[in-house]
Amino acid sequence: MQLVSGQSAWAIEATNLVRRFGENYAVNGIDLRVAPGEIYGFLGPNGAGKSTTVRMLTTLLAPTSGDALIMGHSIVTKPDMVRFHIGVALQDAALDPKQTGRELLDMQGRLYGLNTLERKTRVEELLQLVDIDSAIDDRISTYSGGMKRRLDLAAALVHQPQVLFLDEPTTGLDPVSRAKVWKEVRHLNEDLGMTIFLTTQYLEEADELAHRVGIIAKGSLAVEGTPTELKKAIGSDVVVARIPTTETSRAAQIVNNISGVQSVEVQDDEVIISIGNGARGISPIAVALSDANVPVLEITLRTPTLDDVFLHATGNRLQERNEAKVAQ
Amino acid sequence: MTSQNITARKSGFFHDLGTVALRALRLTARDPEAIGPALIIPLFFLVVNIGSLQSFVEGRFPTGFDFKAFQLPVAVVFAVTGVSRAGSLVTDIQDGYLDRLLLTPVRRATLLLGLMVADFTVVCIMTIPVVLLGLVLGITYETGILGMMLFVLIGGLWGLAFTGFPYAIALKTGNPTAVNNAFLLFFPFAFLTTAYVPKQALTGWLSTIATYNPTTYLLDALRSLISGGWNITLLAKGFCAIAIIGGVSFSLAFAALRGRVSRNS
Question: Which ipTM score applies to this complex?
Fold first, then answer.
């Protein structure tokens, strides 16, 4: 592998990254490598350490220990150099509501040292991404949430960074706006070769966009790989039996002894069974539970999802946390 | 032009400074409620103070004492003290826009200095209506046009020197209420001094405080330009007063900036 610049062959190379706030470890020893041109999905629930990791990698926060090289430049010793190579769209669109969209993009260009002609060229190009027509000359305070997110992304791209950090870029967006962001992320990666570090709490987003996924839980990287590898690692198929919670432990013991079952996990009223061949294994599971007088409310067969991977790695489902958060 | 070769590069200190200052000036123009009162209040007090106190004060001092000329510098102090973009800086902190700026290679010091450059421009402009009202009221400058220009400059420098306090509070707390309360600092500086009567008329504790209040020397310098002619000693003392206030307030503001942009916090 060739050196991208500086000292590393990787676009992002983090080594034992730690960030402590008082006695609490927000990030506790993360090692990760992202190749140039890769989309890396950083998946985890709220409070897992995703945003703290991004704030360290983007030089807003110094690590308590460890280091990371971005395009070969250390975030600890050369944060100024790192800033030339990265673009960042943080979790909440960081915009100035009293400026117009055009003014904001132009100012971003100035801060990255672009001359007048370069700024004009880039702003015109980014207008297609922002897709807000004449509203670009209106004050940002009048924009919708989706428009603000797209403008925030455009602001991160003014200087054509080699590495783009997107911190939960679609949280709170409607499906149409989300699809637009996804399309643009693919375009930036496929057509421009941009390396993208994407944090998300949406499994579908990571599955759809990321070449590789890292799952973070309680400040540590629990598991990492391509979505296909991660799903395969927990078994070819998943049988989910919904059972009254008083019976789930007994049911888990029963199905654990069935031939072909690779692992069994209990999550609330669900017994989740990883199995090599689901089509062949679902009948013996149903029969075994029936013979043991375990009341089965529902039994389904499906291929593994990243949520199963998340459950396997952390002991919790991500999807339910998100749903609970929405319900709150 | 194609965008293929457009990439980020280091720009100069003054380029960064100008970028930040231009944004601040643009937003100031869109924020008339922030400067409107600061413009109206000194004009109001100038007229009211002269109307109500001129005969009384002039009657107690030797012939030739011009209360209008005596009051004009006070109106300038009222106009320029505490005018800053500290409130909008708090908004930048709360909206995350300061983080967006910190993600760029911009020199950190220019994030504050740029605002101060804009403030200096604004307070110099705000001094002009006060000076014009003074001319309308018949106040003339013994030091001529040059003295009048220096009068505006000194007013602007005083306003600039004072901005460090609200910025320090804004950067330290990120709290709009705390910034709004920074105007309380204005009162001792503006009133525990020779705002209404000459120092020889002050007695007891107020006279002592006025002796140590830098505003006293600022007012003396400004008054000298109107009615005393070129007095280098008074002007030097006025500049010293500005330097002392500026030294303290800027030290506090830049310490707060260092804390705010520190990557260890």
Answer: 0.85
